Structure formats: structure tokens, C-alpha cells
């Protein structure tokens, strides 16, 4: 049998009080006697009374809930962003509903439907590597529900975005490798569908050009971020007649996987080949050798995205601002270079 959820009516009947008196106590109104207040709060605690958020949302037209949709949980990046965003949301009085899309477009679409069904006041989103159609996200705009993108963003939608300077981060990483004597630098790039992949590739190429090193397309491999393929691509690079002396990876999981492959080949890092990642994943400092990487201000990304969303929620739709926050990266030098 389904357990009855305790309501204000139950508490009022038990204490022989009016519903309005009990409601005033439970919503913090001051014009109730101390004796009555204590009796209501004691019984509410004893009966495990919970506010009826559905009823409250019908009255206020708000659920005080925001949604967060991320593409995966396999790296530490997205969980760290979520933690930071939740901190800001909680302080502002919002609950959060979190979902991950497992890097598939279909799951991302399903996740947005769940968010709509739960009547969230707004969503924070980072898209999957497969996402090329954004109709499921544009629905939120049409319904007047604010949306903020971070990391992997949709350029088609004029909404707030939080990104890092991927170009500068990649440029600094490759420039550092060149200044340390590396001349044949390979790039394990992300899928061409993602803007971050494009910006990091542009930074890589720009650093080569600036240092008068010819771009060799044979050293650039774009892939779908499926780590099972890294072994194939790294072995392909190492088997070249003139193999690379360094690898710049689109992210840390790719770089970490590459390190494992290179070590199994009996090569020394960084003596034979240097490696740089991107994102400063937790595992990057624990590797042997530890991974040089481009660190992103992950907590700031999450906090900024949440603050932008809450700001939109509190504004009239006509006053929404499609700002883009571009945060700086930092090159963290470790043993792999």
C-alpha cells in the first residue's frame, strides 16, 4: 500500500488548528504564538512532513530547480563542474537535477525531455560529441526557459556560454614543446563537430606556423574521443618512418591512454617522446610520468555557468543577455615533457 504523504491538513487536524495557522508556521511567518509554533514544528518533524513542491510551483510558477546535462562522467572534469555549479545553486535556493548523456545524441534528447517534464527553471548544458542538431535545446528558448552552455557549446543559439580560451591554451602547449626542442609534434584531435576541437587544432597549427615549422597533416588525427581507438592511432604514429617526438592531445584521458601505449612499446617519456594533455584531470598528476597539461579553471566554470543561469531566471525574457565568458587556462609543467 502506498504510504500517505503528510500534509498541512494532517498537522492542522492533529493539533486542532486552522490550515492557515499551520501554513504560516511552516513558511516562517512571525505572527504566530511561540507555543503554537513549537507544537507545529515538533509534530511536523515527528511525522516527517515534506513541503509539497508541486503545489508550491503551481502557485509561484517556479520549481526552484535547475537542470544540468553533461556528456559523460568518465573523466573528473564534468563532475567537478557540477559540484561547483551546485554550490552556487544551493546558495541561491535552487535544487539541481543532473543527467549525463553517455556521449550519445539520442540520450541527450531524452535528458532534455526529462528536464522539461520536471519543469526546471533553467538548464546548464555541455553537448555530446554526436550533437549536430539543436532542435531539442531550442525548445527551451521557445518556452522562455533560460539555458547556459559550457565547454561544448552551440554557436547557433544566442544564449550565455562559459568557455576557456582553447586556442591560447593549445598554442601555449605546442609553443612550449617547440621551445624545448620538439620539431615533429603530432596532435590527437577531437571530433570536428566540436568547437573546442577546432579551437585547439587552430592553436596547435598557429604555434607551428609562428615557429616556422611546416604543418604535416599526417601528424594530425581527429577521432571521436573513444579511448579504445587511442592505441591504434598512437601505434600508427610511432610506426611512421619519421615518427613524432611529441604528442599534444585534445584532452587528458587521451594523453593518459597514449602514455600507456608508449610505455608498452618500451619508449621513454619524455626522452623519446613528450606528451601534453588538456584539462588537468585528477589522474594527470598521479601518472608515472606525471602529465604536463593545460589546466582549466574548472570550479570557476561551474560557478560562472550557474550564476549566469540564475541571473537569466531572475530577468524578464526581453532582458536576457547572451554573454560569453572566456576564462584563461594555465600550462602545468610535469614529468611528461
From TrEMBL:
It holds the Pfam family Peripla_BP_1. Residues 6-60 form the HTH lacI-type domain. Residues 2-54 form the HTH cro/C1-type domain. GO terms for molecular function: DNA-binding transcription factor activity; transcription cis-regulatory region binding. CDD domains: HTH_LacI, PBP1_LacI_sugar_binding-like. It comes from the Bacteria. InterPro entries: Cro/C1-type_HTH, HTH_LacI, Lambda_DNA-bd_dom_sf, Peripla_BP/Lac1_sug-bd_dom, Peripla_BP_I. Keywords: DNA-binding, Transcription, Transcription regulation. PANTHER family: HTH-TYPE TRANSCRIPTIONAL REGULATOR GALS, LACI-RELATED TRANSCRIPTIONAL REPRESSOR. This is LacI family transcriptional regulator. It comes from Pedobacter ginsenosidimutans.
Amino acid at each position: 500500500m502506498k504510504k500517505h504523504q503528510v500534509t498541512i491538513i494532517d498537522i492542522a487536524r492533529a493539533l486542532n488548528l486552522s490550515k492557515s495557522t499551520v501554513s504560516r508556521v511552516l513558511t516562517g511567518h512571525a505572527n504566530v504564538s511561540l507555543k503554537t509554533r513549537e507544537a507545529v514544528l515538533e509534530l511536523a518533524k515527528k511525522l516527517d512532513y515534506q513541503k509539497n513542491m508541486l503545489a508550491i510551483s503551481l502557485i509561484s510558477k517556479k520549481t526552484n530547480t535547475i537542470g544540468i546535462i553533461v556528456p559523460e562522467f568518465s573523466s573528473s572534469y564534468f563532475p567537478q563542474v557540477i559540484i561547483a555549479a551546485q554550490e552556487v545553486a544551493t546558495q541561491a535556493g535552487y535544487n539541481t537535477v543532473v543527467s549525463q548523456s553517455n556521449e550519445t545524441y539520442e540520450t541527450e534528447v531524452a535528458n532534455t525531455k526529462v528536464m522539461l517534464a520536471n519543469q526546471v527553471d533553467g538548464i546548464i548544458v555541455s553537448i555530446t560529441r554526436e550533437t549536430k542538431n539543436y532542435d531539442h535545446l531550442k525548445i527551451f528558448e521557445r518556452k522562455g526557459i533560460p539555458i547556459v552552455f559550457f565547454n561544448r557549446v552551440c554557436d547557433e543559439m544566442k544564449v550565455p556560454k562559459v568557455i576557456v580560451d582553447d586556442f591560447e591554451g593549445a598554442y601555449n602547449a605546442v609553443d612550449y614543446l617547440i621551445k624545448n626542442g620538439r620539431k615533429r609534434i603530432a596532435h590527437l584531435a577531437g571530433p570536428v563537430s566540436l568547437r573546442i576541437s577546432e579551437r585547439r587544432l587552430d592553436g596547435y597549427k598557429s604555434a607551428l606556423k609562428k615557429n616556422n615549422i611546416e604543418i604535416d597533416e599526417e601528424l594530425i588525427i581527429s577521432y571521436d574521443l573513444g579511448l579504445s581507438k587511442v592505441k591504434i592511432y598512437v601505434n600508427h604514429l610511432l610506426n611512421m618512418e619519421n615518427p613524432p617526438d611529441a604528442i599534444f592531445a585534445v584532452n587528458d584521458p587521451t594523453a593518459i591512454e597514449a602514455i600507456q601505449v608508449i610505455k608498452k612499446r618500451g619508449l621513454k617519456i619524455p626522452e623519446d617522446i613528450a606528451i601534453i594533455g588538456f584539462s588537468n584531470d585528477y589522474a594527470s598528476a598521479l601518472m608515472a610520468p606525471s602529465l604536463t597539461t593545460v589546466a582549466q579553471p574548472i570550479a570557476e566554470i561551474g560557478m560562472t555557468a550557474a550564476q549566469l543561469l540564475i541571473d537569466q531566471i531572475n530577468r524578464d525574457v526581453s532582458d536576457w543577455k547572451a554573454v560569453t565568458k572566456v576564462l584563461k587556462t594555465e600550462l602545468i609543467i610535469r614529468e611528461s615533457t
